[in-house]
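Reviewer 2 asked us to include a model.

Predict the structure of this chain.
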Amino acid sequence: MNRQEFLQSTAMAGAAVLLSSLESWATTTPDKKLRVAVIGCGSVSNRYIPQLLSSKMIEVVSLCDIKPERAVAQNKQYNVNAKTYANIDEMLKGVPFDMMVTLTDMQIHGALNKKALMAGKHVWSEKPMANTYAEGKALLDLAKSKKLRLWGAPAVVNSPQFAFMSKQIQEGKLGRIASAHGQYGHTGPTWSSFFYEKDGGSMPDLGVYNMATLTGLLGPARSVMAMTSIVNPERTIDGKGKIKVVAEDNAHILLQHDKGVISHVMCGFCYFDPHGHEAGNQTLHSIQIYGDYGNMRLIGYDWETNGVMLDTDWEKPPVLVSTDKGGYVWQEGANVVGESILTGIEPKINVEHALHVLEIIEAARKSQATGQRIKLKSKFPFPVIK
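Predicted model (structure tokens):
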């Protein structure tokens, strides 16, 4: 998959202490716009920058990229009228801002997010927020110590379809939940090598969505068993040629939840699925939840929802419900949390949930390396939808 195909498909396509600090910040700045700095002006910024500019409560004041010409180009393309910088140190010394939005290669998210927090900035980070659970937990502890807010993508819990599915489960419409499945894959990006390098891989890039959705619906995972592999040991990267693949491009992850519930996630960069990846086909689903009274399937991907197929009757066919997206888009997370800083209203997105998903990814790799089931220690506020 090249950059153009990715953009085309996406186009179609805890905290009492923290809460008190959020309310306090909102109270002291009731009429102020949130000043945002975006670091990383590559492909993903083509979705984030217009989304940030659409908010009446947010002002993008800085754009930063290690290839400074990309920051300049995005500034011009979207008429941002921001200052541009070549690195985070320059940006932190430049125009004052309140929150940093991190859109760089995933391997450096943790280091960049730490610098921003140390400088007194709130942070919204694309996934993952760090390379390890320990690094992510240290970032959260740092944020708490400075009365700052830290959040991590994805924003899948914001969709009306997630809320609908959560309600069906909580109201017992499917009976006793037994099993669930999530899948997300395509043939792999070609525009950057970081996807295939150490601490890259299909889990933090793709599987992270399904992990967030399934744990958000079924509760925190208690243990993980996984198998991962490298199917294509070499990849051809735009402008770089052939590279050796180090991170997994194929992964199957089993999650044990409470009450006997088991879920499964499969993700990879070796999956020929052009129609599914477009997430526009109403017959294709990416998430399925089974109970002993019924099942439901999320149509499209959890980052690009198209409805829910609900099957609860022996005689009648399944019905397509909850088709209204309610304005939900996958790149809305920075807007939602940024506006929450000003309003004092806690968002559904929770940093401890993102950390839990990060621990799952780390545990899956440990399971593959050892052949063992790995117990998890992290939790997050559940249910997400009350």
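The mean pLDDT is 92. Residues 3-152 form a domain with the Rossmann fold fold (CATH 3.40.50.720). We have added this to the supplementary material.
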